[in-house]
Amino acid sequence: MGVDLPVIWAVVILFAIGMYVVMDGFDLGIGMLFPFFPGREDRDVMMNTVAPIWDGNETWLVLGGAGLLAAFPLAYSVVLSALYLPLVLMLLGLILRGVSFEYRVVASPGRRSTWDFSFMAGSYAAAFFQGVVLGSFINGLPVADGRFAGGPLDWVAPFPLFTGVGLVIAYMLLGSTWLLIKTEGPLHEEMRRRTQLWVWALLAVIGVLSLWTALAHPPIAKRWFSLPNLYFFLPVPLLVVLVAGLLLRALERKRHIAPFLLTLALVFLGYSGLGISIWPNIIPPGISIRDAAAPPESMGFTLVGTLFIVPVILAYTAFSYWVFRGKVRPGEGYH
Asked: Which of these, 267, 317, 314, 299, lies nearest to 67 by C-alpha position?
C-alpha cells in the first residue's frame, strides 16, 4: 500500500492552521480586550504576558500557507485570487499590530495611547478578516478551468462578515482565559467576570453559524443529519454543550488553568465541525484534495523537510512557554 500524500499533507496543513488559531488566537484576543481595560498598568501587564512569545506564534500561519502552496497549488491560486483583499487587510493588521507592540514600549507617555489604538486596531482587523476568509471559504469558491470564476468582492456578504465577528469573539475568549492563567488581583477578577459573558456570546455564535450553514448548504446538512452519519457526528454538538458547561463551572469555581484548556477544547470542536462539513474538499463545494494535489514527487520532497521542521517548531514553542511560565505582575516585563 502506497503512502497517501494528499491526505498526509491535508492533515499537516490542518494541524498548522489549528495551531495558529490556538497560539495566535489568544495573542490577538489580548489586543482586542484593550478597550475594556483602559488603565495603563493593566495594559502593560496584558502585553507582558505575551511579549516573549507572540512573534513565534505566527510561525504556524507561515507553515500553513507554505504547505498549501507546496502541496495544493490549485487551491493556493484559487484562494488567493478569490480572497486577496481580506488576506491583504489581515496581513496589514498583523503588521500594524507588530509595529505597535514594539513601539509602544519605547513611546513617550503622550504617544502611548496612539500605539495602544494601533495595537487594538491591528488585532481587530487581523481577527475579523481571518473570519471573513473562513466564512467565504465555507460558502464556496466558484472555479472554472482551474481558476477563480467569481468577483473580487464576493466575500462582502452576510455570512462571511458574521463569521468575522464570530472569530473576534472566539479570540477574545481565548485571550481572556489566557490572562486568567497569567494575571492576579483586580485585573484577574475583572477578567473572570467578563469571560463569562464571552462564553455565552461564543455559544450564540456557534449556534447561529451551525444553523445558518445547514440552511444555506443542503449538502452539508445532508452530511450531518442523514443516517447513519447523525449517530457518528452527534457527539460533536453534545460535547460543545458539555465543555461549555464545564467552562462556566470552572469560572464560577475560580480556576486559573482549566478555563483556557476548556476554551481550547471548544475551538477544537468547532474546527472538527468545519472539517466534517467540507471533507474531503479543499475548495468547497466540489474540488477535493486529490483534484488540487501537486505531483507526488513534489509532495514527497517537501514533506521530508516539513517532517523535520514541525518537531523543531514544537520544541521551540514548548521551551519558550516553559521558560516564561508563571504569573506576570505589574512592573515586570520582557523588554
From this structure: 299
